Amino acid sequence: MRFSWTVDEEKTTLKRFLNNKGVSRRLLAKIKFQGGTLLVNKQVRNTKYEVNLGDIVTIIIPDEGEHETMLPFESKLDIVYEDEHLLIVNKPTEVASIPSQYHKNGTMANYVKYYYNQQQYVNRIIHVVTRLDRDTTGLMMFAKHGFAHAMMDKQLQSGELKKYYHALVGGDLSRLKKHETIDLPIGRDETSIIKRCVTENGQHAITEYKLVETNEDIAQVAVQLHTGRTHQIRVHFSAIGCPLIGDELYGGDLTKGLNRQALHCQKLVFLHPFTREELTFELPLPNDMEELIE
After folding, report:
1. Within a domain: 28
2. Which string of b and e fits 115-148 if b means at least 16 CB within 10 Å?
3. What is the average per-residue pLDDT within 152-181?
4. Where among 16, 37, 60 does a domain terminate?
5. What is the three-class DSSP state of 138?
6. Distance of alpha carbon 208 from alpha carbon 281, whole angstroms
7. Does 133 participate in catalysis according to the annotation?
8. What local confidence, expressed as pLDDT, does residue 193 receive?
9. Within-domain flag for 289
10. Cα–Cα distance, 160 to 195 (Å, whole number)
11. Which major enzyme category is it (predicted)?
12. Which of 24, 70, 199, 263 is the most buried (most CB within 10 A)?
């Protein structure tokens, strides 16, 4: 894979210029030792070479091949967007994001591996940018090579990659405000290997929500995550007394006919890692949540 830039600054080293473009030390080492190339004005150069204003810098990244332990699993993907760098899919319920000791195959990562094999892509390592809980539906992003993954991970950490959810909550709905930010630290629940809880010793976690509508004993909320802790939305709404409908783990109402937490990743907003164009992708609510609202 080839990437090129025009130098827009006065004298600097090739290494520093590439670092400013998001090329990490790890990627530079891969280019150096695994068959890649660094070019300045079509001439092979090393990282210490001094580049000048107007020079054309090109990197050629070696193919990744595939991760042999990631098994392909045949399943049709609902593809929302795809280019040579990114793949965004609509994740269904009852499917884990990545293999684990509980779900060793049949995850979204396995589905994507099968798709890559069918398309005969050169790069078949699975790079998950945004994960979703097993029973959470909606937009899930994969990077199609390591450089794109690193670039999107930076956006995820900085907040440039924005994730918006819709949730249906129950409990004491009088505690919900029209617009509120929940700022409560989250850590592991000592009584469970899966469950999280609000705890003073936990990691900083911020969830912003707006109340969309209330219908008898169910409220629909639009949620934006400002941090990415495990089970964050589920833990925060449970902590304020309004757990998600169907969320057995965190005390949600199980009498509404929904056998999963009512949570859907509805929108992603981010800058394309290479074109820098702002992209927005949105999905409607899944049928089970829509029917419950109606």
Report:
1. yes
2. bbeeeeeebbbbbbbbbbbbbbbbbbbbbbbbbb
3. 96
4. 60
5. strand
6. 19
7. yes
8. 87
9. no
10. 28
11. isomerase
12. 263
Among 8, 83, 133, 135, the active-site one is: 133
Same domain, 86 and 20: no
Residue 94 forms part of a structural domain: yes
Q: Residue 195's domain spans which residues?
A: 164-265
Same domain as 51, residue 109: no
CA distances 145 to 22, 34, 57, 272, 273, Å, are 14, 15, 20, 14, 12
Q: Residue 103 pLDDT > 90, yes or no? A: no
Tell whether 21 is covered by a domain.
Answer: yes
Q: At residue 225, does pLDDT exceed 90? A: yes
The mean predicted confidence, pLDDT, of the chain is 94
pLDDT, residue 11, reads: 87
Q: Is the pTM of this model over 0.85?
A: yes
pLDDT at residue 248 in the model: 95
